[in-house]
Design a protein that fits this description.
Helix content: 55-70%
Strand order of the largest sheet: 2-5-4
Number of domains: 1
CATH superfamily: Winged helix-like DNA-binding domain superfamily/Winged helix DNA-binding domain
Order of helices and strands: EHEHEHEEH
CATH class: Mainly Alpha
Shape: elongated
CATH architecture: Orthogonal Bundle
Strand content: 15-25%
Amino acid sequence: MGEKNRKKDVLQGTLALMVLKTLDVLGPMHGYGIARRIEQISGDLLAVNQGTLYPVLLKLEQEGSVASEWGASENNRRARFYRLTRQGRKQLQAEKQDWDETAAIIARFFAVRAGDVK
C-alpha cells in the first residue's frame, strides 16, 4: 500500500499551466517562489522539483509566454524573476478553455450508468 500523504509529481504540461496561472495571480516571481506557491496552492499535495520547473520556465520563455530578468530575492540573493507576457495571458486563457472542455467531457463519463448506454 502506498503512503496516504505522499505528494504527487506534477506533469510537465500541467506544470506549465500552473506556472502561468501563478504568475497571472501573483505577478513576477523567482523560480523557487513559483515552486513553493504551486505546492502551497495545491494544499501541499503536489511536489515541484527544480529539475522539472526550470526546463518548463525555459520553454515558456522561448515560446514568449514569460519573460525574465535578474533581480534580488527576499534574502538578497541574485535570482531570475519571471513574469507573464501578453502572449502568456492569451495562452493561459486558451489552456483554461481546453481544461474546462476536457473536464466537462470526463464528467460525462463519470456520470454515465449502464442503463444510459444503448
